[in-house]
């Protein structure tokens, strides 16, 4: 039976690839998308989410708009990385599918209460505002979550939005703190691993040689890559968010350690830092599997196979 997931997202080019990978994969049943503000404002992220569903041939998928600002702070966005719309690099038609009725937080709560306990996995790939709000409002849903597999944080590789912090956690550290302290089983894809999931020119050209879905992936990657090339001098774009879905499909592609991770909310220079106790020096209980390595070639082979299949299916 396919594993049920909800993707909580702020698309974002790499979010888009993650969503496509999930929709391409028969092992996963995507129950819906809960959308949050992050890379850009909610007006763009909810529209982008619908455009991605339509591109994938899934206008039936419920897309719920959620929180438009962090729990306690002003929203920080990343147009400098993702462009004005958050999904620059490809021109897609205005989405015809409407937003699903109801706030994303209600969707999360109602779905977790309705589905069998322990059957729904949450995949947050943006700031954790929707998830934390749902947990705070309905603590009874926390033990019903099968697992949370999120993109966020950084430790050895340190930050991308500040020297100490990764974007998703930095934007809403109070929300991250709630999720990391929730007691739910947590797998974390930090920059330490996602900066190893770098696209190559050959892979992007393979995508471009496919149908319109592969071509969209190539266009987004081209756009996204220019930022990383200028900033890090790296060859290729890090496919941060698809690491979460790839882990669900094949955890053997990754390795990490079950450790204690705390979220810094008060530091003068370290807001949103994920303090990862890799060596177990704090004595604090483990709360997250912190991933550090990915088998890069196998990761991209999986992506290629799935995007090709989706492209063929969508015709
Ligand atoms: C994370 O922030 C966003 O820019 C990406 O979509 C990803 O979720 C990487 O720091
Ligand atoms: Ca994202």
Q: What does this 3D model show about the protein?
A:
The protein has 315 residues and is an alpha/beta fold. The chain has a single domain, classed as Alpha-Beta Complex (Inosine-uridine Nucleoside N-ribohydrolase, Chain A). The protein is built from twelve helices and ten strands. It has helices at residues 13-23, 42-55, 79-82, 104-114, 129-137, 167-171, 173-180, 191-194, 201-208, 212-232, 242-249, 296-314; strands at 3-9, 28-35, 63-65, 120-124, 145-151, 186-189, 254-259, 261-263, 274-276, 288-294. The protein has an eight-stranded mixed β-sheet, with helices on both faces. Strands 8-9 form a two-stranded antiparallel ribbon. α1 packs antiparallel against α10 (212-232). The chain is globular, with a radius of gyration of 18 Å. The two termini are 26 Å apart. The structure holds beta-D-ribofuranose and calcium ion (CA). The site of beta-D-ribofuranose (BDR) has 15 residues, from α1 and α6. Residues 5-300 form the Inosine/uridine-preferring nucleoside hydrolase domain. One of its GO terms (molecular function) is purine nucleosidase activity. It holds the Pfam family IU_nuc_hydro. InterPro entries: I/U_nuclsd_hydro_CS (IPR015910), Inosine/uridine_hydrolase_dom (IPR001910), IUNH (IPR023186), Ribo_hydro-like (IPR036452). One of its GO terms (cellular component) is cytosol.
């Amino acid at each position: 039976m396919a594993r049920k997931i909800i993707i909580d997202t702020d698309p974002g080019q790499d979010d888009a690839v993650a969503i496509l990978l999930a929709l391409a994969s028969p092992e996963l049943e995507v129950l819906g998308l809960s959308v949050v503000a992050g890379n850009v404002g909610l007006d763009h992220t909810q529209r982008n989410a619908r455009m991605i569903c339509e591109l994938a041939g899934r206008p039936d998928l419920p897309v719920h708009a959620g929180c438009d600002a962090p729990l306690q702070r002003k929203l920080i966005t990343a147009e400098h990385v993702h462009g004005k719309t958050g999904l620059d690099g490809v021109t897609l038609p205005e989405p015809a599918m409407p937003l699903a009725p109801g706030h994303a937080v209600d969707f999360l709560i109602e779905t977790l209460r309705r589905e069998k306990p322990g059957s729904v996995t949450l995949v947050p790939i943006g700031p954790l505002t929707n998830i934390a709000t749902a947990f705070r409002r309905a603590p009874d849903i926390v033990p019903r979550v099968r697992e949370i597999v999120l993109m966020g944080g950084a430790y050895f590789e340190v930050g991308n939005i500040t020297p100490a912090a990764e974007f998703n956690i930095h934007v809403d550290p109070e929300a991250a703190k709630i999720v990391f302290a929730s007691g739910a089983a947590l797998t974390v894809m930090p920059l330490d691993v996602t900066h190893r999931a770098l696209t190559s020119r050959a892979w992007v050209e393979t995508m471009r040689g496919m149908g319109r879905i592969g071509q969209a992936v190539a266009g987004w990657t081209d756009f996204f890559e220019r930022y990383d090339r200028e900033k890090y001098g790296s060859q290729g774009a890090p496919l941060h968010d698809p690491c979460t879905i790839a882990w669900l499909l094949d955890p053997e592609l990754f390795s990490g350690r079950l450790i204690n991770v705390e979220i810094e909310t008060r530091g003068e220079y370290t807001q949103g830092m994920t303090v990862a106790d890799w060596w177990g020096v704090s004595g604090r209980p483990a709360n997250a599997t912190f991933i550090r390595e990915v088998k890069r070639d196998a990761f991209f082979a999986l992506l290629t196979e799935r995007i090709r299949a989706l492209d063929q299916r969508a015709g």
